[in-house]
# Entry
Amino acid sequence: MKVILIVLTSILILACQNQNADKSKPLVTAELPTLSQKFEKFESCEELNSHIQNVNKISTYEYSRYNQWFQSEWGNSGGTEIVSVSAINESSSEQDQQVAGVNESDVVLKLEKLLIVSRKDSLEVLSYDINTTNINVIKTYEMLEIASPRLIMMGNQLFVYGYSNANPDLIQVRVYDLNNNENPLSLKQKFKISGFLRGARVIGDNFYLITQDYLKENVSLEKETCSNTFRPAINDLSLDLTKILHIKSSDQQLTAATQSYLGGTSYIYISENNLYLIQNSLNWFYWDDRIKQSIYNNFTLVRKINISKGNPHPVSMGLVHGRIHNQWALHEIDQEHFALAVTERNSTNFIDVNHFYILEEKKEIISIKSSIKDLAPSETIRSVRYHENLVYIVTFRQVDPLFIIDFNILEQPKLLSELKAPGFSTYLKPFLKEYLLGVGHSATEQGFVNGIQVSKFDVYDPIKPELIKQVTFSESDSTALYDHKAVYLDEAQESVGIPLVVRHYRNSMSHLNRTGFVLLDFKNDLSELNFFTHDDLMSESCKVKKSEGFIPGWVNLDVYRLYREHDVYISVSDFGVQMHNLKFELMSTVKFKNSINECIVFGI
# Structure
């Protein structure tokens, strides 16, 4: 109890210091630590084990693998018809992805005439026909070994991966061939890798899975692991191990190899040619006399790994002041340059400031080529989006400043404008050419968050951006805040949508008012077009429990993905799939067999 009181008191003191800090004080930053000049591997398991022992002698502190759990990309996740499987139809609505040509995983895959839905312990494979609006479950595949599996396609092969139910420190990977028969999935191969998930991507015939493990003393290490492990880039006490599982497909054969880097990874960014491992840390160097006065000095380490020829090989690395908010903070401009937006906490007055860097690679070292520094003192970056030669950055403390920066001239990026608006956006997306979509939180003038907010900005003239409209859902939450795959984008229909959970209060008790997927008319002031819900697919007991507020937290039991193909909307929930026409009239429904027990998944 005393420890808890001490921690709470410390937090309150630091909060007061942050509120009352003298903004006139110069911003003081610690000296960056020494960076290794080249990539070197450990020569043997004996040498790697010796390094582990030395680190443990220096400090008894052990890094918990769970302290970065929230940073991972992990999502929360009738008759039989023979179908022909091919790519998604071009007329369909689109899901957002960070880099063109680089496929990201999801919990639902929509292919032409085929829908694959990942559930807690199974995969539902459905066939659908938008002309007849028929939809049927072809087969249900049990996934008892993998918890809430994620899905990603590589050619005609489906990769299914997730944490092992038997061992949460292990990630299982299953590769299936897609067949044009009554058994559409046939298992081709299994792989496994230890650690916590940091992300997965597919580029052409290459699958990359990045994990973060922890090295323990006196643990038996495989010889192959030791010989493929690079030394730490900086002299710190980290025993985190970043692993890259690379699976390549050639002549219908799958080959796998693992490469490791001593040092953690908070986020990944992958272009068609390069993979970037990005490490944030607040306390790497707390034992260093230069910065022992504060644990709030922070740095970002970037390792750049070339993957243009399939097999990963490191090419450069660099350190900068500040921490990134998520994967969207980084953008590759060309083979030698990339951009990075960071927030840095000052060590003397605890004020946050924000920087935009243009970084350059020269002779294996990444360094700052140019920058715009000290944006929005006392605020932190909440979202970043790159589009052509512009970057949109949102920071927040009490209001939502939207910064627009032009980096067309790499030697001299230019701050074009700053627009203040209520609340803040955690997701940004250029939409319909001249507009910018923002999804985030509404907030009071004092900075208190009070619900989901969707914003429409006119950025046709980046020097004079305008806030056109904001719509707020009071006492609400959405998975779109942290899962960009959940956002519905439809330029043809000029509409957008997000999953939504709305609460209301009665007699001081919280109750779920409605859960589902809201569709908004983006072109015409964000008016609500429809609210898709699968409430009719729930069991009566589940409906009662939901209405009485027994669903813990902000769990969305309802529609979490929405698609449009031609004149048909397809909505997906843990209970089933429905098809509606453009007038939002229900055309067909399929209910998952064990959906009656879905409420039990959440402990009620």
